[in-house]
Amino acid sequence: MDTDKFEVAIIGAGITGITLALGLLSRGIPVRVYERARDFHEIGAGIGFTPNAEWAMKVVDPRIHAAFKRVATPNASDWFQWVDAFNETGTDPRETEE
Known about the structure:
This protein has 98 residues and is α+β, with helices and mostly antiparallel strands. The chain has helices at residues 15-26, 51-60, 62-71; strands at residues 8-11, 31-34. Helix 2 packs across helix 3 (62-71). Residues 8-41 form the FAD dependent oxidoreductase domain. GO terms for molecular function: oxidoreductase activity. The chain crosses the membrane at residues 6-26. Keywords: FAD, Flavoprotein, Membrane, Oxidoreductase, Transmembrane, Transmembrane helix.
């Protein structure tokens, strides 16, 4: 068995699968992505990313996080913030004026 040649199989071409594929490819690691859907299209769902998910994007490839920030729409209300008690500006909401 030739252990010098390998290809990583990624099951699912969702956000996580494609991010992983881009990160591995940028490091010269060959990948093959398997996806059940025949095509890609909007599904009309809103999703949220935790600070850890954003950190992971930066670790995999800072360009992925930069692309995410260009198209992301932050929540307009402090009621829709993460449990870390910070809003999209990184400030503590208790220290801001109403």
